[in-house]
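Here is the promised in-class demo. Please do not try to memorize the tokens; focus on the logic of going from shape to residues.
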């Protein structure tokens, strides 16, 4: 079989080009440090690399979200801590003011500081973060969540709670709504609330109260009765349907029990005086603080005034304790979320390290193997070039 000169030249050039292409590929791999420079180098591995890079991008976003959430929760925890400190100071002042030995002017001085602390509390409730957003407004972050209207503090935010994705299937709340922190607070002891009627004319003062069994929820009214001045004082307990629940004789400093609840009373109630007992309802902390300051501001000129004053202060202190418990629970919840963030970040970093290891094993170049292959391909290319030169020099014209 005869081989034409053109066919021989084409075969030689093609072989050298293939050797040169392989050499260039190895050279590119060594320069980039990557085994795969384009999908055709290893289609299956290229798809795996894309999936791993996408996973790493998601993990990086989780880390950024965790940092944002940590900063937001840290700031909220600091503000809630200040709220707790303010409420503690208000409680100290209320306990100081709840004394029969203080003069009216002394109580009014205490009231003035409590009013100032109330303004401080409202200011804390309207705190803004570094982005200028109100942290207790829920989703309404552009306007103050709490405003004063006719002497009352009104919530203008919503119940929304900002959430951030910080892990695969894991979200964390970065803020708490102002309603949760400052408004949804159970009055009384958290189970029941007891209050003396404003119209009472006697000197009865409500003392400690609480549950002593299975509480039968209802709105109860205790009415004191005395037939004559010399007659013993009795009481009748009626439920919301005006049905008689319990009756008994009143003892100064004794307790009255019914429906699984109990409270103590001291002093001398007048005929027709009433005390109500009902399941705890929500009461915002601003109203509680204002009522304490208002009670301290009122002069007490007789026994009836003093009884009303002590009832208001006792009721206010009970409500204030519930507010402190609420703030403490919110603060503890923020701390738990911060701990959860730390744990999730550690898990994300472990996943990231694992993904980076697999990615490196998949796409990174084995330099020892690549350099050996490069030298072998270079030698093969040089040999092919020399063989082509020698073979192409063979011609009959050399023998003529």
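The designed amino acids, position by position:
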């Amino acid at each position: 079989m005869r081989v034409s000169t053109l066919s021989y030249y084409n075969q030689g050039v093609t072989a050298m080009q293939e050797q040169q292409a392989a050499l260039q590929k190895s050279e590119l791999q060594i320069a980039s440090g990557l085994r795969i420079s384009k999908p055709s180098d290893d289609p299956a591995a290229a798809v795996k690399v894309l999936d791993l890079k996408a996973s790493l991008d998601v993990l990086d976003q989780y880390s950024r979200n965790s940092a944002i959430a940590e900063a937001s929760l840290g700031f909220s925890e600091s503000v809630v801590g200040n709220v707790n400190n303010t409420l503690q100071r208000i409680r100290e002042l209320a306990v100081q003011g709840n004394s029969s030995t203080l003069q009216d002017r002394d109580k009014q001085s205490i009231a003035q500081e409590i009013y100032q602390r109330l303004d401080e509390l409202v200011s804390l409730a309207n705190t803004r973060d570094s982005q200028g957003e109100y942290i207790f407004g829920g989703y309404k972050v552009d306007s103050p969540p709490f405003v004063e209207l006719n002497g009352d503090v009104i919530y203008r935010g919503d119940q929304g709670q900002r959430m951030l994705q910080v892990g695969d299937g894991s979200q964390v709340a970065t803020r708490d709504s102002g309603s949760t922190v400052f408004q949804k607070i159970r009055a009384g002891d958290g189970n029941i609330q007891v209050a003396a009627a404003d119209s009472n004319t006697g000197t009865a003062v409500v003392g400690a109260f609480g549950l002593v069994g299975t509480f039968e929820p209802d709105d109860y009214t205790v009415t004191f009765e005395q037939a004559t001045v010399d007659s013993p004082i009795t009481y009748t307990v009626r439920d919301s349907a005006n049905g008689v629940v319990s009756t008994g004789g009143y003892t100064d400093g004794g307790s009255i029990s019914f429906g699984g609840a109990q409270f103590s009373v001291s002093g001398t109630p007048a005929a027709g005086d009433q005390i109500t007992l009902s399941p705890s309802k929500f009461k915002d902390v601003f109203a509680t603080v204002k009522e304490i300051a208002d009670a301290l501001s009122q002069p007490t000129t007789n026994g009836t005034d003093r009884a009303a004053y002590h009832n208001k202060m006792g009721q206010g202190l009970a409500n204030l304790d519930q507010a402190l418990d609420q703030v403490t629970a919110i603060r503890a919840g923020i701390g738990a979320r911060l701990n959860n963030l730390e744990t999730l970040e550690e898990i994300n970093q472990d996943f990231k390290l694992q993904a980076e290891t697999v990615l490196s094993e998949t796409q990174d170049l084995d330099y020892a193997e690549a350099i050996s292959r490069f030298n072998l391909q270079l030698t093969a290319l040089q040999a092919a070039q020399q063989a082509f030169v020698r073979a192409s020099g063979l011609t009959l014209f050399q023998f003529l």
